Amino acid sequence: MKLQILTALLMPLLVSEASSAAAVKCEALFRNIMPSVNRSIERSLSQSWQESVSGLRSITQRVYGRDQVVEALATAILAKEFVWINGEPGGAKTYLSRLMFQSVLNSIPEKDKRIFVLQFHKLINEGKITGFQKFKSMMESGRYEVETSTSLVGDKFLFMIADEAEKSNPAVLNSLLGVLNERKAFLGSRVVDAALSSGVFTSNKTTGEFIQSFLGDRPSGEALLDRMAIKIHMANQQLSPKETVAMYDMVKNPNSVQISLPLTELQALVNKVEIPESMMKQIVSIAREFDRYATSKADQSRAALRYGESESEYFPANQFSTRSVRRLVQVFKASLIAKQLMDGVPYDQIRIVPEGKDLVLLSKSALYVGPSQIQFKKYLLSETKDNKTTGTVTVKSKYGTLAQMQVELSPFENQLRLLDGAGQVQFVLHPSSSGKDWEIRSQSSEFEGWTVEMKDVAALDKRIQQVIADNKLNPEKPQFEVDKTIDLLLAKGTVKKRTRTELESIKADLNQFAEILTRQFEQTNNSKKAKKSAQEEIVPERSRKEVRAFLKQTRSLPADQRTQRYYDWMVYEVRALKNRFIELEHSIEAHLTGLLSENHLYVFGPPGGAKTALAEVILKAELSKMNHDQVNQFVQSTLTVMKKDKNFLNAVLTKMRNEKPQIYKRFLLQFHKLLPEGVLVGFPKIDKQLNEGKEEIETSTSLASKDFTFAILDEVDKANPQTLTALLSILNEREVFHGNEVLKVALRTAILTSNKLPSEFLDSYHEDRSAGEAVMDRTPNKVFVSNKLSTEEAMTQFLMNLEKGISPKWKGLLAMSELKPIVEAVEFESPVVKEMLASIHEKFLALRIKKEEESKEAHQMDAREFPDYYVSATSSASDRTFIKLLDQLKARFIVHQLMNGVAYKDLRTTIEMKDLNLFFEGLGYWAPQKITPTYNQDGILQFNHESAVLDGLISQGVLDKRVKYQVEQMKDEAKDYAQVINTVVSDFIHAYRNEIVKYPELFPSLFANEKSRGNIK
Predict the structure, then answer these.
(1) Which whole number is the average pLDDT over 334-351?
(2) Residue 24: pLDDT band by 50, 70, 90 thresholds?
(3) H/E stretch holding 73
């Protein structure tokens, strides 16, 4: 009991990260207990709402004609997302962004919070993003330490404004990507949490020009744009001379009143927005249909650009990756709140459950915001015949001036809109509470004090009914259209060709989306209620209490019982993991196989597929168990040597503070060209070398440290040659060569992640392609992760899991190292099985290497027809490769049963002929497909290929041509393997027919039953 109490009490003292967390909690608790004289008076939620309404109104008055952009920025702040704003110079992109962010900062009590403003260029240092190295620490102790307080990840910077990100160098760009996605800086031995909430990236380039500027590193540009949940095109001119003058007056007579915009306090409302499952299905259906349109349009655009048929490229506002669709939903929620703020809805009337008509707000993230927007379809009630206009409404100023305004009916919003001569809305009328007449809901500042002749409005009733009847309007089936703003801009003739092309493309997207929305409502109301799809039951996470109880129970068990308990424990944990990472079962299996076999992984796929997220979850779950054992072992040994006198507890505390147990960690690093190899192998102590002439390496902050058993390494292709060479020896030999000494590293498994496809990965090495091949050779497990789900049902399930609080950020307990005794017990059914595996290895590689060479030649000859080329997963037929794969097969065999929920009592430890399919992953790519053993009509073993997920991805039309090509090649690869394995089995049966008949018990898995054995006689 004393041991358990000590472990619980002292754990925060042993782990520096835990100590930091405890300190933060204590500080927060202290702040809540002790009043601060500097703390602002807290507002109620209703006060924050009203203040935000007033603040947004003040901002729209200061920046004329930018209401859409203001609403989009408010949405981004509420959703804690990033924004991309482009447009010709002079549109107030930076000014408006700073005004919005500063207004939010004016409302918060932490007065030290600031905006991080950065102008990118090629010579900028990555320290601006992730912090600068402390050279004194390097000189004195050889430790790699970074100071982050003045960088983007410093705790003072809540918002950022960055201009011309395409001009950043690769080092800065890579550092930036991790910060934008995870709000963290990955510094190898240290992970720094950023305070960053939202930010804006501005550019004078079109999005197509932006992505083209990345040349050979296009995936990095795509990854950066994928981080931008909202994309805005801001025009740099007003629609009419009158509005231009209004803008001039506003600029020349600025309002100096400090605006307070407490949007951060309203973020809680966004989290309360509830999306019903039926609406989530609509959202997914709309997103998927538009994804197909945008993917096809982008493919055609890239092909036209490549062959000189176009000067600019189309790049969609949303790439509809799993991650960006998740963000689309979050932005939709935030947009619902922002729209009501902009409309001035009273706090007691706000809605947190969206209605069907709110689906139009999806356009805020699915499309470019501005200058036009999607609106409910409207009908003009005023008519002009024979130079006579009817159906107008008279408005009168307080001085008696009269004006005639045309009237527009918005039937799906149930409002009338009075338009001036320029077509601008000046009055909005809604039905009164009685429903018998109309009342003014809002009017512009330009017509403040004017009155509306309500008898003219009443006279329109007959015309309203006629329009509704003629167009067969149904309020439950809203129709949508695009407003005329882009048309008005283009009609002026003052827009440059490059911007004109972009605006026309944006307008085409808006029209397409409006059509999709309209069709969605027609289909939804005409179709019968769809049956609810069967879903696997989501298993809940085990509580900390359950985890502690399990660890306590297994602590002193005999080895065999301990292994059994851990295996059965993990059957549940793996099921919970699969629930949370939909269609990533193959990737989970690859990661667990890598951990158990201590092999490395290369995980690739377009941005937004949860590559890093899954690796992080699995490694943390494994480290949790490993570190528990380390602490428990340390405490046990400490108690053994200490005398249990009256000073016992103090003595134990002192010893544990001073010595501390070994705590294992994961090493997270984003590679770039300027990264020194010392981050991997350690830095020399310069002072010692200067004073004593001796080389001494300090490894405590490098990958070579004994603390790092696992690593997540991103964008290895961007490492410089020195760093790459150092990495290769660590991956292969698990050693660091320093000349005068060879250091063993603790690294067991490294997970290399990349947004690049294998061909792009190798091409990025340019002249030294062999270096890229060496990296891939050191990662036996090559895992493809799609950034899109194969069906709308799968995406709906994923999003509804998030709505129910079932997050991919699973916190479980894995213990793959506990299964090593099982792997050691695995044996082969017969030496013949190993011989067959060697034959399969040889035949399969011969087939695939030939296809690799053919595909590369085809790509070089006709890139339009063959947009990419195939790279075989295992290009080496060396003995070393075969030995490594054969060794891993044993671990794969156990993990495969674990993934399928096989209980320990039913666990097989003999690899039979029917398990030959499990040798594929390693020879080929891990992908969401299967090769399964079956028996033909004669009862003889054969293997078939199943690829429902890949088939779904291909048929949905949501993969661009290059990704689609790679997916088709992976399918082809698996089909080839099934063909090879069936040939090898057939050849074996024919060659050993007599022996099989004579000794059938040697090959029990070759036949379904005794009768089928007789069929070969």
Answers:
(1) 94
(2) very low
(3) helix 67-79
Residue with tokens 């069907």: 356
> Buried b vs exposed e over 457-493: b needs ≥16 C-beta within 10 Å?
beebeebbeebeeeeebeeebbbbbbbebbebbeeee
DSSP letters of 18-71?
HHHHHHHHHHHHHHHHS--TTPPPPPPHHHHHHHHHHHHHHHHHHSTT-HHHHH
- Which pLDDT does position 444 carry in this prediction? 83
**Does the pLDDT value for residue 927 go beyond 50?**
yes
Q: How far apart are CA 70 and CA 889, in angstroms?
A: 57
Q: Are 869 and 760 in contact (CB under 8 A)?
A: no
The two beta strands, 184-188 and 191-193, are: antiparallel
pLDDT at residue 951 in the model: 96
Question: Looking at residues 771-787, what average pLDDT do you find?
Answer: 92
DSSP-derived letter for residue 1007 is B
Element at 232 (helix H, strand E): strand 228-233
Backbone φ and ψ for 21, nearest 5 degrees, come out as -60, -40
Q: Which is it for the CA torsion 460, 465, 466, 470, positive or negative?
A: positive
Please provide the average confidence, as pLDDT, over all residues in the chain: 87
- Residue 541 carries which DSSP code? P
Q: How far apart are CA 587 and CA 576, in angstroms?
A: 15
Q: For residues 707 and 745, what is the distance between their CA atoms, to the nearest angstrom?
A: 9
Nearest to residue 783, comparing CAs of 612, 1014, 547? 612
Backbone angles phi, psi at 191, to 5 degrees: -115, 125
Burial of 201 (0-12, 13-18, 19+ CB in 10 A): buried
Q: What is the pLDDT of residues 599-632, one digit of tens each?
A: 999 999 999 999 999 999 999 999 999 999 888 8
What are 328's two structure tokens? 């689309």
Q: What is the mean pLDDT of residues 783-800?
A: 95
469 Rama sector, left if φ>0, alpha if ψ -120 to 50, beta otherwise: alpha
Q: Where are the alpha helices (DSSP H) in 815-906?
A: 820-825, 831-861, 879-899
Taking alpha carbons only, the member of 66, 101, 61, 55 closest to residue 82 is: 101
Query: Which two tokens mark 698?
Result: 């300090």
Count of CB atoms within 10 A of residue 897's CB?
20
Rounded Cα distance between 511 and 377, Å, is 12
Quickly count: other Cβ atoms within 10 Å of residue 169's Cβ. 17
Residue 766: Cβ within 10 Å count: 10
**Residue 573 identity (one-letter amino acid):** E
More confident residue, 284 or 883: 284
Residue 31 has pLDDT above 90, yes or no: no
Amino acid at 130: T
Q: What is the DSSP string of 131-180?
A: -EE-HHHHHHH----EE-TTSTTSTTEEEEEEE-GGGS-HHHHHHHHHHH
Q: What is the pLDDT of residues 543-562, one digit of tens each?
A: 999 999 999 999 889 999 99
Closest CA to 235 of 481, 94, 60, 66: 66
For residue 366, pLDDT over 90 is answered with yes
Q: Which residue, 169, 73, 92, 67, is CA-closest to 126?
A: 169
Amino acid identity, position 509: D
Task: Please choose, from the candidates 659, 660, 663, the residue with its C-alpha nearest in 3D space to the C-alpha of residue 627.
Answer: 663
Supply the Cα-derived Rg of the chain in whole angstroms: 32
Q: What one-letter code names the amino acid at 362?
A: L
User: 48-66 pLDDT, tens per residue?
Assistant: 999 999 999 999 988 888 9
The alpha carbon of residue 175 and the mean position of all alpha carbons in its chain are separated, in whole angstroms, by 16
pLDDT in tens, 482-498: 999 999 999 999 999 99
Two structure tokens written together for 982: 């069936």
Q: Is the pTM of this model over 0.85?
A: yes
